[in-house]
Amino acid sequence: MVHDARPGIAARLDGPRVARLENYSGYDAGDLRRLVEAGAKAMRASHKLHVVVTPTPQRTRGCAEVGGKKVVLAVAPPSRFSKPKLARILKHELLHTQGLEHEDMTDEELWSKGPEPRWARDKQVRHERKGKAIQKRLR
Asked: Measured at the alpha carbon of residue 27, what is the angle toward residues 26 and 30, in degrees to the nearest 5?
């Protein structure tokens, strides 16, 4: 079973779930905030999040403390970027903020595999230097 939200783990919040977004990546901060907000809402984040987005030269990856409020996303450059992959990694990290350890996740959640989460499908992530939405997908 793949989780969009865990019953009993997270209470609903009213309003925004991202308290702070620090963006050093070169991707549009508004686009990133909308993507993270959509994910946090779908995952029923129980507390306001602090999200840091940094660039990385190779592959997108993430880090979050189990039960914590901070999520760090290192996002690949446009030539290696995949929005579905970013959304799946975000989902994995949000599960950590809800208290899940790796052994509590399905294989899809653990390895950030499978289809793009529904909550991310209508979102775009533009690179500020390009000024347009990047639609490249990993195959």
From this structure: 130
- Helix or strand or coil: residue 119? helix
Distance CA 75, CA 54 (A): 6
Q: What's the CATH class of domain 18-123?
A: alpha beta
- For residues 126 and 97, is the Cβ–Cβ distance under 8 A? no
State pLDDT tens for residues 119-132. Answer: 999 999 999 865 44
| CA dist., res. 103 & res. 13, Å (int) | 27
pLDDT single digits (tens) 50-101: 999 999 999 999 999 999 999 999 999 999 999 999 999 999 999 999 999 9
Domain boundaries, the chain: 18-123
Sequence letter at residue 124: Q
Q: The tokens of 69 are what?
A: 């409020």
Q: Which pair of structure tokens corresponds to residue 31? A: 């686009």
By the 10 Å C-beta count (0-12 exposed, 13-18 middle, 19+ buried), 40 is classed as: buried
Query: Measured between alpha carbons, how far is 25 from 125 in angstroms, rounded to an integer?
Result: 11
The CA distance from 112 to 131, in Å, is 27
